[in-house]
Amino acid sequence: MHSLPRLFALAALAAVSTLAAAQTKLTIATVNNSDMIIMQKLSPKFEQATGIKLDWVVLEENALRQKVTTDIATKGGSFDIITIGAYETPIWGKKGWLVPVDDLGADYDYADILEPVKNGLSSEGKLYAVPFYAESSFTFYRKDLFEKAGLKMPEQPNYDEIKTFADKLTDPKAGIYGICLRGKPGWGENMAYLTTLVNSNGGKWFDQKWQPQLTSPEWKQSLAFYVDLMKRDGPKGATANGHNENRALFATGKCAMWIDATSAAGYIFNPKDSQVADKTWFAKSPTGTFKGGSGWAWAWALGIPTSSKQSAEAKKFLKWATSKEYIVMVGESQGWVSAPPGTRKSTYANENYKKAAPFADVVLAAILAADPTKATRDPVPYTGVQFVAIPEFQGIGTTVGQSVAAALAGSQTVDQALATAQAAAERTMKQAGYIK
Amino acid sequence: MASQAVTPPLAGGGRAVRTLPLVGPSVGVLLVWMIVPLAMTLWFSLQRYNLLSPAEKVFSGLENYKFLLTDPSLFTAMGHTLQLVGAVLVLSVVLGTLFAILFDQDFYGQGVARLFVIAPFFVMPTVSALIWKNLLMHPENGLFAFITSSLGLGVIDWFTNYPLTAIIIVVAWQWVPFATLILLTAIQSLSGEQVEAARMDGAKPLSMFWFIILPHLLRPITVVVMIETIFLLTVFAEILVTTSGGPGDATTTLTYLIYLRALVEWDVGGASAGGVIAIVLANIVAFFLVRTVARNLDT
Question: Would you list which residues of chain B are within 8 Å, Cβ to Cβ, of chain A?
């Protein structure tokens, strides 16, 4: 039994030491994608300049979301700076879980941040997180394959054209799939893409009374199109392919077209990572009968939970990591093609960036066009292009994503899958009190 | 065994030493260890509590249970759990027994071979799931696809077309070694004289297996079944890594369903209710298991 007092002593010691260290140490939770890894690599410069120590928690996207959400919802206070997306920021900001960050100083140049990105991270006019990088979606395609087949990709394709191209370009003998699309279930994976397709066909998630619309003709048409296209021209095992898997397929030359995040362009056009860097070109995200809502709007941003006791120091880091100077620093030390995209006008005015990133103007146009408040043909009670900005959407989107994957795998028909999804969505909305 | 290891009871039914003061503290700690989380789960299961709207937390009685029990996905999830546990148990006992007999034979390189057959048990579940998903069963880059397509047989997309079977294979691959390990040590404890006597009576290998080895293995097999059931009811990492419960809900087990409620929908109340149902289910299984095992161990 003698170990018990010793244990207490140890615990007390640990508590004291964390208190002592808390004076100068910031804990940052972030996601493990390449732009954030660069931030971590460059952070010693911030530590030297300010004397503040940084403690990194780097996690995969889903794990990060779980950790951060549980921590902030229970006021755990383990993190001083969190990496959050355009989906969480307005919801959490409204709840008072995030410290407003409109006071980083005049030299931060808020006017330089792209307007739609800033709006996506604000709630009721207050900015709750500063964008680290932002993206929309567009169409990557292989110009060599298009030339060989005598095809021409229009600047703004529609889905009929995409289907014709995909059918023509699929070549099983050469191991080329006409099109690669996300199939891995998840609200941020297959549903992000599928929602833009539904938007293009004039569909929506909910009507004005919050009644789910998943069995509407627009959803049926979209899902049937997606399943049919992927069956004819998509890679095998598509239900396992998320953003990263598709990026690998495209970078190794297995896809003729790929509709996905603009932020992947830096990777695809970097000859160190991709075998198709000199053969790839891009067009806008395809449209259908409705012209809006076809490219999504997403941003990874840095925010400060109200449970942090060091928000003043944390703001210094936010300012450093999302400033114009930081983008220049990345450009100069890591190569301009790797500079964090989509956040600032000054990046797109920079000649070095434009030279290294031929896609810059198209990406800028796509981001400026992606308006979360005008993404659907009919009026809806929600905002968001590829998501619905309510807390319940994570659950609904994931459940519906599962059904969509079942339809893609062929284990359910399109109608069955949508009926299951609709029933599940109705249950959740009823339980949450949206539908009486 | 009964003849050697019995402490003679004292007159009056008491034992020689009073053990309660010695056992008491640890039993007390264990009780608290169990009761506190259980009570919290029960309490949360009666709340309407979504982590994303903590302000709206109210007592809701049995509403969470009502919602869960009318949810068709609960029963499919239970069905998948039972299929998974049942199939892996059968596979690991049958293959485990066969492997145990095989590796009990004398052959060149026996030590290394034994090491290899037990090795999968020491691979972390996430790692083995990734290996199976990306290196073996992947329809593009996988070894199986390479073998079947070079034989001209076409390619099976395991995790899309036979998701539950694929997961059963992955989990069985991890647990067969455990069964092999236990059963192999059991076979080694089989007395040589008994085998010798049977052989002198003219027993053929097959009847030797049925009447000597298998009865000897009955007790370790029940131990394997019991221990594996406990762990298999909570299989999670393999599902998360390979199929995320899909496609559709084809591989959503009870554990995975609770995960979805708790960490994707953030519905603490609903997830706790699911947890309580899982506890009830596990206890029913445990009740029957303990009874059969106890009977087996008595003889």
Answer: 50-54, 67, 71, 73, 133, 138-140, 155, 157, 159-161, 243-250, 252, 260, 263-267, 270
**Tens digits of residue pLDDT in B175-209:** 999 999 999 999 998 888 888 888 888 888 888 88
Per residue in A354-379, pLDDT (tens digit) is 998 889 999 999 999 988 888 999 99
Report chain B residues whose CB lies below 8 A from the CB of A74: 51, 54
Q: Write the ipTM.
A: 0.72
Q: 3-state class of B189 per DSSP?
A: coil
Fold of A4-135+297-357: D-Maltodextrin-Binding Protein; domain 2 (3.40.190)
Among residues A80, A42, A8, A143, the alpha carbon closest in space to that of A302 is found at A80
Among partner residues A73, A91, A236, which is closest to B155 by beta-carbon distance? Answer: A236
Instruction: Considering chain A, tell me which residue range(s) the CATH 3.40.190.10 domain(s) occupy.
Output: 4-135+297-357, 137-296+372-431
* Interface contact A185-B244, CB threshold 8 A: yes
Are β-strands A25-31 and B58-59 bridged in parallel, bridged antiparallel, or unpaired? unpaired
Buried b / exposed e over A211-224, threshold 16 CB at 10 Å, is ebbbebebbbbbbe
- Contact in structure between A400 and A193 (CB atoms under 8 Å): no
Distance, in Å, from the CA atom of A249 to the CA atom of A255, rounded to the nearest integer, reads 6
The fold for domain A137-296+372-431 equals: D-Maltodextrin-Binding Protein; domain 2 (3.40.190)
Question: Structurally, what CATH architecture does the domain formed by B62-298 represent?
Answer: Orthogonal Bundle (1.10)
Domain boundaries, chain B: 62-298
**Partner-chain contact A237 B265, CB within 8 Å:** no
